[in-house]
Design brief:
Blueprint (H helix, E strand, L loop, with lengths): L7 E3 L8 E3 L5 E3 L6 E3 L1 H12 L13 H23 L6 H18 L3
Antiparallel strand pairs: 1-4, 2-3
């Protein structure tokens, strides 16, 4: 990847439940503790994972394909490791969390070169 000199404000886990509409109809971001200046590709990968087929209207031109690939792998691995850490404790819905880990592990393995 080529070095980057421009970054954007990235929510980190943007989704429909992190945007409210104020009394004037303006969108307002909430739950912003993960806000950072970073590569916009990070947010787009998260949105692709979270929204699946609903991501289409949010697509943006000019995204770096190499960064998208790296961040997709990184987020899939994180979405595997996080649930596994919860399973080390007394998480109540163990099957649900194990399914999330397995689902993301399978997607991460699909990204690995053959």
């Amino acid at each position: 990847m080529a070095p980057r000199t421009e970054y954007a404000v990235v929510h980190g886990e943007l989704g429909p439940d992190h945007v409210l509409v104020d009394a004037d109809g303006n969108p307002v971001l909430i739950d912003i503790e993960g806000l950072m200046y970073f590569d916009v590709e990070w947010e787009h990968v998260f949105l692709r994972i979270r929204l699946h087929d609903g991501y289409g209207p949010l697509q943006a031109d000019g995204l770096d394909e190499d960064r998208l690939a790296l961040y997709m792998l990184a987020q899939r691995l994180s979405l595997t490791a996080g649930p596994l850490r919860l399973l080390d404790g007394d998480f109540p819905d163990r099957a649900f969390m194990a399914d999330i880990a397995e689902h993301n592990l399978q997607h991460a393995l699909e990204l690995a070169p053959a």
